């Protein structure tokens, strides 16, 4: 509930606030990378956090230390209400819904920059290929067996090849499992047949012992 804007508003009574930095734990501030995307690599911090309020003048620090004597600072007031409960949940859910058009535009822009970067690297490599450097070494680049295929098509072919190999391994395992079941079934049938033959042999031997004509 207590975000940067709220902290800046609360401490504004002490003096002009220059900046408010919210961190996960106390300590020297780490250099934060500028997020290029609003959809990816977003880190959500949960639990308690630490805030550093920087005033433009030293007098603001002294005034902030004396705030505890003036009473409790209210985050939510009539003029600046803070949403809580179900209202906050609704806002959080609405903020979590991704705009598909905006997401598509960002992904397309990223892919265009990526393709441009790859094209520049390939053009630079092709330009430098075969040209010796200052020490006389010649840089040799390894090209694929099908250099004429686009990068995406070559990647698709690799995926299809992996899927084909995976399917072949699965079929082979299924064949081995079927063969094992058939061998086990035949073994059980032979045991049953032998058991029946032994049972008939034993019955015949018993009948021969009981039948004594002399």
TrEMBL record:
Residues 100-131, 181-208 form a coiled coil. It comes from the Eukaryota. One of its GO terms (cellular component) is CURI complex. Gene3D superfamilies: 6.10.250.1770. The keyword Mitochondrion does not apply. Residues 96-214 form the Ribosomal RNA-processing protein 7 C-terminal domain. GO terms for biological process: ribosomal small subunit assembly; rRNA processing. Keywords: Coiled coil. Belongs to the RRP7 family. This is Ribosomal RNA-processing protein 7 A. The lineage of its organism: Eukaryota, Metazoa, Chordata, Craniata, Vertebrata.
């Amino acid at each position: 509930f207590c975000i940067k804007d709220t902290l800046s508003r609360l401490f504004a009574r002490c003096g002009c606030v220059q900046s408010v930095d919210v961190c996960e734990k106390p300590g020297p501030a780490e250099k934060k990378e500028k997020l290029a995307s609003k959809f990816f690599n977003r880190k959500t911090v949960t639990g308690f956090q630490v805030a550093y309020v920087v005033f433009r003048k030293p007098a603001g620090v002294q005034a902030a230390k004396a705030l505890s004597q003036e009473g409790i600072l209210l985050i939510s007031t009539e003029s600046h209400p803070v949403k809580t409960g179900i209202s906050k949940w609704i806002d959080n859910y609405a903020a979590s819904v991704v705009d598909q058009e905006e997401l598509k535009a960002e992904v397309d822009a990223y892919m265009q920059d990526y393709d441009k970067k790859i094209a520049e690297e390939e053009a630079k490599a092709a330009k430098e290929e075969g040209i010796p450097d200052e020490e006389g070494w010649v840089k040799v680049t390894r090209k694929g067996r099908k250099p004429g295929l686009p990068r995406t098509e070559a990647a698709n072919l690799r995926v299809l090849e992996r899927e084909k190999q995976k399917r072949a391994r699965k079929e082979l395992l299924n064949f081995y499992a079927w063969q094992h079941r058939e061998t086990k079934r035949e073994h059980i049938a032979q045991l049953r047949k032998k058991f029946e033959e032994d049972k008939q042999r034993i019955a015949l031997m018993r009948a021969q012992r009981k039948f004594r004509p002399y």
